[in-house]
Specification:
Residues 1-52 form the F-box domain. The chain is an alpha/beta fold. The protein contains 13 helices and 29 strands.
């Protein structure tokens, strides 16, 4: 019989708060009595920002003192209820103005860990000036600290891992499930740190220094890994239960994910973004064989083969973002269970096939590098005809340097019908050309339910487009009487102008929906913006 559980609640609370953090957390799972006691304790959350001022030194010094006082005053409640409070979240953000501030941060962390803090987040910036020179990074963890209650640890920016504190006896993160480090200096202690995190499930390393030799082996609970780097380092990942791997490599050298160093047979999602990396058809085939249970693939790389073939019965979502796709002539995707397909590139392949009866979402983005003409629109029409998603498809087009479209050149015998798409998004990025031809050509070969035009620059030349849009519903449209393809203006149901910026009688006119009549809008001499 558990006699301790028969003690008065006040005594049980004192016992709980005098145990090491990891033991106290474990005690809360021993019985319903201890769990009820743990849950009955009042909880607190703290979110502090150490104010940073860029003015005079005295002003900055006063701000430092006020920030420290503010945090101390807020944490006073912990001293008043030493044995009666636990902390869910402690977040500290700010700038290190001088190295002495590190002792204040140490003091605050040691205080909150006495109350079994579960989520600890530090977002520390650095300050460099002529008075303090370069302030040293904040070293974590503080010496002689018990961090056994931590479930989530996030360190951002100007922090480093302390070798002395990490090697002290009993330093373990027994309950830690999420470790997120961003721009942190690991001092070559990556594996030493991970060896003290037996329960880790989510691991994020973003642009960390001195990551060096990463070994993720034997972590049976590891589910998600995010690895972003700008430095060369070796790695090995062996995790049988890993579900998601996100790998970002921004090295200028051409490199890609080393598949031989990854042994995760149950991987379900792979995101690989390598702007300078090149992959081939053989690499794709090896990837699919090595990870047979992949359901989501997102590749952002350069592709250096003429053919691309993807064969998978498990795949449900596929994203292809090719930095260089000039060599691709044929794409064949045989994925019967594919639900979502996204393609981003500069050109559409000459030959394309995709078989999936479950396809619901298609998102296509094209960024032409050179001039386009009517033949480009016809090729796009054939390409769009390959898709029959249940919910419709989305098309995003970035305007090229030169655009030419003539409906007289449309082939009446074209085998591809006008595509019905859900969204058509057009990004206008050059103000020196008239984008009317681009919009006109796109609307001739596809019929979007919604057309969304957005621009990077103001003062776009869209006067002719504006007039075309405002002429919808007129009965004397004879633009397509000699063409088998029906003009898009006949299918246009309504136009909603949320706002406009134009010129009437030599004066600038700005208005919003409901503030101007349609006749006024259509008779503007010049239109620079529609929003």
């Amino acid at each position: 019989m558990d006699r301790i559980s028969q003690l008065p609640e006040s005594i049980m609370q004192q016992i709980l708060f005098r145990l090491p953090a990891q033991d106290a957390v474990r005690m809360s799972f021993l019985s319903t009595t201890w769990k009820s006691l743990w849950n009955s304790l009042p909880v607190s959350e703290f979110n502090f920002y150490m104010e940073s001022e860029d003015g005079l030194h005295l002003k900055r010094k006063r701000s430092e003192e006020e920030s420290v006082t503010s945090v101390d005053e807020s944490l006073r409640v912990l001293h008043q209820h030493e044995d009666q409070k636990r902390i869910i979240n402690f977040r500290l953000r700010g700038t290190l103005h001088k190295k002495e501030q590190a002792s204040d941060i140490d003091r605050w962390i040691k205080l909150v860990i006495k109350h079994y803090v579960q989520v600890l987040e530090l977002d520390i910036n650095k300050l460099f000036n002529s008075i303090d020179k370069l302030i040293p990074r904040y070293s974590f963890p503080p010496a002689s600290s018990d961090l056994g209650s931590l479930v989530v640890l996030r360190l951002n920016s100007y922090c480093d891992i302390s070798k002395e504190a990490l090697k002290q006896e009993g330093m373990r993160f027994s309950c830690l499930k999420e470790l997120s480090l961003s721009n942190v200096d690991l001092n070559g202690l990556t594996n030493e740190l991970l060896s003290r995190c037996p329960s880790i499930e989510n691991l994020n390393f973003k642009l960390c220094k001195n990551l060096k030799d990463l070994r993720l082996c034997g972590f049976s609970k590891l589910k998600n890994v995010y690895l972003a780097t700008i430095r060369a380092h070796s790695y090995k990942i062996e995790a049988s239960n890993l579900q998601t791997l996100r790998y970002y490599n921004f090295l200028p050298q051409k490199s890609h994910l080393d598949l031989e160093a990854i042994n995760c047979s149950n991987l379900k999602e792979l995101i690989m973004e390598i702007p300078s990396g090149e992959i081939s058809l053989q690499y794709i085939e090896t990837l699919l064989l090595k990870f047979p249970f992949l359901e989501k693939i997102n590749l952002s790389v350069s592709y250096k083969s003429t053919k691309l073939k993807i064969l998978s019965h498990q795949l449900k979502a596929l994203t292809l973002n090719f930095q260089d796709d000039t060599m691709i002539k044929k794409i064949s995707i045989k994925t019967p269970n594919l639900v979502s397909y996204k393609y981003i590139g500069h050109e559409f392949p000459l030959s394309f096939s995709l078989n999936s009866m479950k396809l619901e979402k298609v998102d296509l983005t094209v960024k032409p590098r050179s001039a386009i003409g009517t033949s480009w629109f016809l090729h796009l029409q054939e390409y769009l005809g390959k898709f029959t998603p249940k919910q419709g498809l989305s098309l995003t087009v970035f305007s090229p340097p030169v655009i030419r479209f003539a409906r007289e050149e449309l082939r009446e015998e074209t085998s591809s019908p006008v595509s019905k798409i859900k969204y058509l998004r057009v990004c206008l990025i050059r103000s020196s050309i008239d984008h009317t031809a681009l919009i006109d050509g796109l609307l001739w070969i596809c019929r979007p339910i919604t057309l969304y035009i957005f621009s990077v620059e103001k003062n776009l030349a869209i006067k002719d487009l504006y007039k075309k849009l405002m002429s919808y519903g007129e009965t004397n449209l004879l633009c397509c009487k000699d063409n088998l393809i029906k003009c898009w203006q006949h299918d246009l149901k309504s136009v909603k102008i949320e706002g406009f910026d134009g010129i009437k009688d030599g004066r600038r006119v700005i208005g919003r929906e409901g503030l101007a009549r349609r006749g006024l809008l259509r008779n503007l001499e010049e239109v620079s913006t529609i929003f």
